[in-house]
Write a structure and sequence with these properties.
The chain has nine helices and no strands. The protein is mainly α.
Length: about 190
Amino acid sequence: MISRDWAWALLAKYNREPFHLRHAQTVEGVMRYFAVSLGYGDDADFWATVGLLHDLDFEMYPGEHCIRQQEIMRENGLEERLIRATASHGYALTVDIEPEHEMEKVLYAVDELTGLIGAIALMRPSRSVADLKVSSVRKKYRSANFAAGCSREVIERGAAMLGWELDTLIGETILAMRSLESSETAENTGSSI
């Protein structure tokens, strides 16, 4: 398993935009949260690395997303299960690698959803997910023009892959993102949770 520092350096080599780097960190944390909450705590570092590196090629090679990153990862000696897991979130979009493991299905489901929830949070007076409710997300979710780049079809397909209701997926993802805000607050104040 590669270290988090090594994975971050690889990500930063191919991504410079703060938005992309923040998104990678968000998905990293959300994946760690789901690993623990779904009973894969021993594999939480792997789930988090998959989240961190899932869009490795997106900024430099958007037209070959999930394709070029496989080459980059192989050139850097990364293990095949990591390569497969990250590429699977492009299923039915750019690759034919169908998510099979529960971790791959979670990544597929939460990638777009974290972007949507993040956009909603930024519009709130609190600029936070701390007070965000599923009903607020569903309201914006129905507005096709809001965060139009976040595919509702992919989110719904991901929920179906997991066998979850959409509201369950949204609610759990909000909780995962809240846990990240709590961690950031603790780091910024020097306290521990």
